[in-house]
Description:
Radius of gyration: 30 Å
Distance between the termini: 23 Å
Number of helices: 13
CATH topology of the domain at 120-265 and 317-425: Rossmann fold
Shape: elongated
Strand order of the largest sheet: 5-6-8-7-9-10-11-12
Amino acid sequence: MLMPFQILGLWVRGLLSVIFLGAGITLLSLWFANREQTVVEVEPPVQRVDHPNEKVPALDEPQRTRLRVVTWEFGLNKETAYLLGGIALLLWSVGGGLTLSPWLWRPSGGKDEPRAETSHKVEFIRCPDGSELCVASFGPADAEVIVFTHGWGLDSNEWFYAKRELGAYRLITWDLPGLGRSKRPADGAWSLEKFAQDLDRVIAFAGSRPVTLVGHSIGTMIILTYCKLFPEALGTRVGRVVLAHGTYTNPVKTSSRPGLYTALQKPLLEPLCHLMVWLSPAVRVLNWLSYLNGSAHRSTERDSFSGNETRGQLDFLTRSYCKSAPDVIAHGMLAMFRYDATDTLARLNVPVLIVTGDMDNTCTPEASRYMAQRIPKATLVVLSKAKHCGLFEWHGQFHEALVDFLAVDERRGPDRRVAKDGNAIPTPSHSASSPEKA
């Protein structure tokens, strides 16, 4: 999922894509301009012949020249270098994603590859500001209700696997404002508080029964903000909470390089977000160039996957990021800079499942351990060989942990914390004031 500190990579990747495309076009232009050259040649002097065996020097006369067109030949020359270099850069710019990116090296998941689904019936919730939220419901109407909130830069199709593997539950998915089929806020207000209020409307849509809230990345931030704004809903409208690959504060502070990104936030990251809003159409072109040349796939794998993802999973998330409106992405990133729910953790009085990946450098495992220490009824699950999209890459293990969590009798309390391999993780002290160090 896209985080504020990744704005720098988005710009660098896009600008490099333009540079390589421009360099390829320039080299081909140089080849075209130099493929035929006109050269000036000096004609040899004319000699008079008075006798077959006697040559008489030519009379003094002006030196004569002639023009000759020389066509380039394939070989060790600069014109050939222009041609081959230009073709290589142009092919990489528009097709590197199919030849040089990790997409090519990943196995296919067959019929189970994720895909965007637009055929199912959806409903739209009208918000007071005039915007609309796209909501979909799946599964038995009388089953236990789970409300899913996706990560930033994606849409409700992120829950492709959940809709296939959790058929015994009633699943409610929705698109965050400005993403998928939801309209962006009509009043131009972007904040985690606004998103939490939208989540409240989705919960009301789900009916009167208590629901389980499941969030990924920014989805966890929205859920924690919801708990902060609507504490009375905990235990009544909300029975359980699942926080996957998330954080409790400004994600810049819980990334793998908090010192660097915190120092860059004001002078660089925030201005780049504003620039992304102003130049949204241009950035959209840059994003698709990155998709075509494969650099977007490489970036997605580096940040989101462990290398065990399928070809379809990698392309699905990468394509989703590129389809998102850049100004919407930038507004959400600016909102995340102002997010903090640290004080809310200790007040969560419902069972909470926290899922993290042991290789996640976007929202580090330390952030999840800190939340597990502070939340009274927390259960921590660590997915092995998983990064920020571990719940997508290892969807089977994630859904197994979710089902086990929903099956536990709440009255027993969280007597153990379970890792993906089944080993128990000792329950940390709830009095700790800082994240547990790995």
